[in-house]
Amino acid sequence: MLSTTRWTVSVSKDTDIAVRTLLAQRGMKKGDLSKFIEDAVKWRVLDQTITDARAQFAGISADELEALLADAVIAARTSTRSDS
C-alpha cells in the first residue's frame, strides 16, 4: 500500500466549481478529486523539469547535444549489460 500525505489547499471558488463540474461530467465522484490533483501535480512537475532541462541546454548546438545523448546512451547500455 502506498503511503499518502494529507494536504490542505486553497483554490478560488471558480476553480473549485470548474474541477468538480469536470469530475462530475466524467462520472467521477468526490473522492476522485485527490487522484485528479495528484495527476495534475505530476504533470506540472514533469513540465517544469522539462522546461528547466531545456533552459540548461539552450546554449548547446544540435550536434553537441546529439553527441552528448549518444554518449549517454552508450554509457547506459554498457552499465545495463554489466549489471546483468
3D architecture notes:
The structure is a single chain. With 84 residues, this protein is mostly helical. It has one domain (13-83). It is 71% helix and 0% strand. The protein contains three helices and no strands. It is elongated, with a radius of gyration of 21 Å. The mean pLDDT is 91. This is XACb0070 ribbon-helix-helix domain-containing protein.
Short description:
InterPro entries: Arc_rbn_hlx_hlx, XACb0070_RHH_dom. The protein has 84 residues and is an all-alpha fold.
Q: What is the rounded distance between the termini? A: 29 Å
Number of helices: 3
Shape: elongated
Strand content: under 5%
| Mean of residue pLDDT values | 91
The helix-strand sequence is: HHH
Briefly note the structural class of the backbone.
mainly alpha
Poorly predicted regions? none
Radius of gyration: 21 Å
Q: Tell me the number of structural domains.
A: 1
Helix content: over 70%
How is the main sheet built?
Answer: none
Work out the number of β strands.
0
Output the keywords:
84 residues; mainly alpha; XACb0070_RHH_dom; Arc_rbn_hlx_hlx; XACb0070 ribbon-helix-helix domain-containing protein
Topology:
Blueprint: H1 13-25, H2 32-56, H3 62-83
